[in-house]
Amino acid sequence: MSNALPVLVPRAPRRQMWSVGGGKGGIGKSVLTAALGWQLARLGKRVVLVDADLGGANLHTCLGVPAPQRSLADFVMRRVEHIEDVAVETNFPRLRLISGAADMLTAANIKHQQKVRLLNRLRAIDADIILMDLGAGTSFNAIDFFLVSDVSLLLVVPEPTSVENGYRFIKSALFRRLRGACDVPEAREILDFAMDPSNLRGIRTPVELLSAVENECPAALPPLQAALAAFRPRFVVNQVRGPADAAIGQQLVTACARHLGIRAGNAGFVYHDDAVWQAVRQRRLFAAEDPEGRAAQNVRQIARGLLQGEPMSFDW
Amino acid sequence: MAQLTHYEALDVERGATPEALEKAYQHNLAVYDEAGVATYSLLDGDQRRAARGRIEEAYRVLSDPALRAAYDTELALRRAASGTVDAAGRRLPVTLPDPVTGADLKRFRESRGVTLAKIAADSKVGKRTFEDIEGDRFERLPAVVYVRGFLQEYARAVGLDPRATAESFLARLPRR
Fold first, then answer.
1. Close Cβ partners of B19 (under 8 Å, ≥ 6 residues apart)
2. Which of residues 83-122 of B touch A (CB under 8 A)?
3. Using an 8 Å Cβ cutoff, are A134 and A24 in contact?
4. In a domain, A261, yes or no
5. CATH number of the domain that A39 lies in?
6. What pLDDT, in 10s, does the model give residues B107-137?
7. Domain spans of chain B?
8. What phi and psi, each to the nearest 5 degrees, are found at residue A20?
9. pTM for this one?
């Protein structure tokens, strides 16, 4: 037996993956992601925006960048070898873009292996923050990108349909994470059963699910509890029109804790601002057009708050 | 929400100021508001109404100094009845037999309202192991060095002295 001590190698500052998801289209996800990326770059981070909205990419438009010649599709389809080759500079310092534009319609359902390769290579990009714009809906791709992120943002607008979809997204993501953390077949059966919304046992929430697992196969419980505790989606409320709307983020956090057993976070809100869609029409980034406008200030506050809460600091 | 205390129903500290109480009350009402979005898809109308009723009741009591004082006394008595604190909330000295048995530990744990699931989750030790400890099923327990660690985790979780508890229990273990 060797007596050698393990050598501790100092770890390089870890790149962070951030993602913006939301269960519904048309709530301003791409616009907000573009503005957040721009703001993070402005705060000194080297940022790569990734349009992971496979099938409905339009991040380049929000940034005022012409549709790039090369996109994520070229990397996924192995037409280019290095993912850095599909990252293009934007008009803004420290901000690059990997577009998902062009022929990604079929790629919305990329294979598991492609996804693993993609995520590994994204993580290896030389940048401080990889910020991904996820597609609408609850496809496994969107959910997997959301789950592997260090900061997982969930965008909602103050409408019942949007919040309902947001909860659905969170529940789907959590069940997928729990299933991944579960290696006991009996417990997996309970999980699969609970995923079916019409399940007869009426398991509706993660809390009920875990108590069912505790009753039937307690040995499987600890890893599931750990997975639940590590799951921390953060809400961003977009298109807020007053103080009552601005308070919704915190209400969602309370509702998640009480009724889903999920420890969510509240990352902030962004006021509705006509200047935002006017800028989008002109294919310009609203935050860069008027950095002191209300919506742009809201985004700055979100960026600052998230950076303060980051697990480790970078050298700026 | 039925079994929650008024403080838990509003999610405030025992010593919450009137301002903090007011803020928590408004926040919680908004969470369950009929026209709000936060619990719209999680609860049905009846459940939301019941939740609002629970919040109103908690606020009615806690926002009135006299009612709140009476309620605090009631809570203190309730805890005292569980045998581990006196009416002023001070911890009573605990005497467990030495050497301590699994059954003694179980009785004490239950009096403290701590579940095995909680201890298992916090310590990342399987619940079965703690069941075996409480059931004095020595033959199923792993090596002493591990059991000592488990006992200390257990003792810490229920508020006993970790070292004394572990040694007291281990004294009864047959030598292997």
1. none
2. 117, 120-121
3. no
4. yes
5. 3.40.50.300
6. 888 877 888 998 998 888 888 999 999 999 9
7. 6-81, 102-170
8. -120, 115
9. 0.76
